[in-house]
């Protein structure tokens, strides 16, 4: 979908900044045409370079400065454009105009990884950023979310500490994009409020299948303010249309080597094919008078608001429908700030949010070396911007006003103030008390009740996966005392879980017993998330002499659910069916890896060059998909690849031979995603 021509207000604004060099004569940066852009100016054929070669100097000096400092956290990111449409009236809760029913608002979303550098892999076990910039008629509103509903700290004072602990150790600067090292787990065991988010991080939620299948939680507690000045506490949630799904630990590690760009490639592929990612925006609302009715503090970001206790209300839908034009100009230069608010949305005294309101702008001032980074096209609001701020590096607009202060007589007091509700006015909350560094309430020190609630809510496959992930990461810790402390710490969450972890990482079983807290909620298990075959990525492994009727029907069924189909064979030469039907492979066994697919359809057939090599490639696909419990379709000509034995139950393997319902059964299996009872 091309939104550039006749698109939304942000697209129209960006159009004035778009340009192309194609078909035009090359010029220097001052506009003079270039005669030679291939050879430097020198004194004689074998002589030294001359300093007067200004074209080389301009070209090279610009290249030397092409990059800006990468973000300290969330360095690896990718951005896409879209549109948000409000669907439900929020008038009783907020005066924010972009939440009025039917209102369409352009958005730019940047997905990111927290720990790794800009060149690391997409599939690392990591915190994911889900930052959304709403270009509203009242100014930019930035909503910064994670894929977890909780944060790793309860006070902004520890921002630096946890980041230093998670990043590569300073001596050798290793390992990259992982927390499987001593420093991180030393931090975790020394700061027990981290327990809850670490449980989420080590779970399947730490390894999303794609950004299209990942929830987004801003984690902070905000206020909604209506036109009467009434305040309601709120937390936001993005819920993906495709549900929440993940890759396994081994898959993530393999994919990270085979295709480090797995997530960005996925979203590019989806948008280019018209399978636009969709998310519902939900709000969880708590009346001010109910602030203290829960067994958690609503200002504590290490605690979630269970959906069964505070039901989410869908208030709008976001569709991501356009790719960026230039990665640097848009993704790299985009800047988000939780202090970019619009009338009707306000801060609370959430200690982490208070710190974030300062931290984000300050880091962008450093990255861009200018106070004018919000004048960059990707960051520029679509609403009018009028202020008395002046100068700094790279000032883009040419300010023509002679008066740039407030109050004034010469300009008749302009730019003038705008009274509320149209102008932003902070909520008049009553504040009193002694200056202190105490936590807002004692429940901030309840470190283990909600982590146990999370553990109690997981299905058995999710618990097994969590133990494996913990064992992998804690197993990378060299200091045995830290491994022992980790086991003792998480015994507070579940004694049996910690005992299994102790055995796996070679330390003494825990002496600690878990806390007495037995709540559990279905919403916390992603196995209860919507499951669908829509846009699944399927490898069709095929050779010559295939059954055309079977294949044609299966491919039609896959196309019917918008599956992304890759034809994989021994070579890229067309393969032919029994009656002459031709299919052109898109990949070979050498150019793709089985882990890059959600499923495989093994058609089988005759090889053009080496049957043994073809059969080995087909078996590799079968074994890998079987090991990772993914759905497998086996054509009538490929039954030899899926032999049943006493050791396997072939659960989730759909056989075509003598099966008139083969295609329909395969689509049903594809929607299941995983077959956890497979042996």
From TrEMBL:
- Asked whether the keyword Iron is assigned, the reply is yes
Q: Does the keyword Membrane apply?
A: no
Reaction catalyzed: 2 H2O2 = O2 + 2 H2O
Among Pfam families, the record links this protein to: Catalase (PF00199), Catalase-rel (PF06628), Catalase_C (PF18011)
Q: Name the enzyme's class.
A: oxidoreductase
> Which residue ranges does the record assign to the Catalase core domain?
27-414
User: Which EC number(s) are documented for this chain?
Assistant: 1.11.1.6
Which SUPFAM superfamilies does this UniProt record tie to the protein?
Answer: Class I glutamine amidotransferase-like, Heme-dependent catalase-like
- Keywords, comma-separated and alphabetical: Heme, Hydrogen peroxide, Iron, Metal-binding, Oxidoreductase, Peroxidase
Against InterPro entries, the record matches this protein to: Catalase, Catalase_clade2, Catalase_clade2_helical, Catalase_core, Catalase_haem_BS, Catalase_immune_responsive, Catalase_large_C, Catalase_sf
Q: Which cofactor does it need?
A: heme
Q: Where are the transmembrane segments?
A: none
List the biased-composition ranges (Basic and acidic residues): 1-18
A GO MF annotation of the entry reads: catalase activity
Q: Where is this region: Disordered?
A: 1-42
Q: Per the similarity annotation, which family is this?
A: Belongs to the catalase family. HPII subfamily.
Q: What does this protein do?
A: Decomposes hydrogen peroxide into water and oxygen; serves to protect cells from the toxic effects of hydrogen peroxide.
Q: This protein is called what?
A: Catalase
Q: Which organism is it from?
A: Bhargavaea changchunensis
